[in-house]
Amino acid sequence: MRMNxxxxxxxxxxxxxxxxxxxxxAEAETLVKEAIAFAKANGKExxxxxxxxxxxxxxxxxxxxxxxxxxxxxxxxxxxxxxSKIGVNQIHAKDPDGVxxxxxxxxxxxxxxxGWHDYKYVNPVSQKKExxxxxxxVWDNLIFxxxxxxx
Length: 151
Known about the structure:
The chain is an alpha+beta fold. It has helices spanning 6-15, 25-42, 44-52, 101-112, and strands spanning 59-60, 65-71, 76-79, 114-122, 129-139, 142-149.
């Protein structure tokens, strides 16, 4: 009896999507640009709704990569971790090291309009405080961002 080995050669490719893959900086930046494009095409309210919808089109890697939107005063406009954060002014929020990361985010937005910044945040998958870096970009006086956890 002769075995067909070609099916075995495809097995790694089939299993790859099942393996845990970390989000990349390029993926975070692309997700922010996609969210801005969505807002431009569908309006701010539709973007806010879609970004806040758990498991929506702006959630990746099992919820570990998601989009957030802040206004220029540090108030949450939309957040991929859920609607409970919306409307909360986070300008003085501190990470575990005492860094006012939202204040840094707003300052970066006001001075450069886009870029990366580092802080620590609770990973929604591991539930642990982990080092994170987020890409932010300003559109229509709102700060759109997405971050990756540094492993």
